[in-house]
Design brief:
Elements (H helix, E strand, L loop, with lengths): L1 H6 L4 H17 L3 H11 L5 H25 L5 H24 L2 H21 L2
Helix pairs in contact: 2-3, 2-4, 3-4
Length: 126
C-alpha cells in the first residue's frame, strides 16, 4: 500500500504540507498558495512553477471543505462569495496563463515581494 501511494506522489511530506495548508486555510482564510507554495519549494524541493500549479490544484477540495464547515454554521455570505468567484475565475485564467510563460526567477521575486507586502500591510493596518 505504501509503495502504491508513493508511486502516486502521495508522500508523508506532501500530506503534511496539505494538512498545514488546509488547517491554515480554514483557520485564517488564506489561499493554499501562501502556505503551500513556500513549503513545496523549500521543503519538498519542487520548482516554483510546479509548486504554484500544485497549489492551484489543491484549491477546490480546500474550498469545498471550508464552505461545508462555514456553511453549516451559517457563516457564508453566498452573494458576496459568488461575486468574488466570478472575478476570481477571470483573474485565475489570466494568472495561470502568465504562470505558464513567466521566467522562474521572476516568478520567485514577484511571489516573495507579494508575501512581504501582504505581511507589512497586515501588520500595519488594523
Amino acid at each position: 500500500m505504501r509503495a502504491r501511494l508513493h508511486s502516486l506522489g502521495l508522500t508523508p511530506q506532501l500530506a503534511a504540507i496539505g494538512l498545514g495548508g488546509g488547517l491554515l486555510s480554514g483557520l485564517l482564510g488564506v489561499g493554499g498558495g501562501i502556505v503551500m507554495v513556500p513549503l513545496l519549494v523549500l521543503w519538498a524541493a519542487y520548482s516554483q512553477r510546479d509548486a504554484h500549479a500544485m497549489s492551484l490544484g489543491a484549491i477546490i477540495p480546500i474550498s469545498i471543505a471550508g464552505i461545508a464547515t462555514y456553511g453549516a454554521a451559517g457563516e457564508v455570505r453566498y452573494g458576496t462569495a459568488i461575486a468574488l468567484a466570478a472575478g476570481s475565475i477571470v483573474g485565475a485564467r489570466i494568472g495561470a496563463g502568465w504562470l505558464a510563460r513567466i521566467d522562474e526567477r521572476l516568478l520567485k521575486v514577484v511571489f516573495g515581494t507579494f508575501l512581504v507586502a501582504v505581511a507589512v500591510l497586515m501588520g500595519t493596518r488594523g
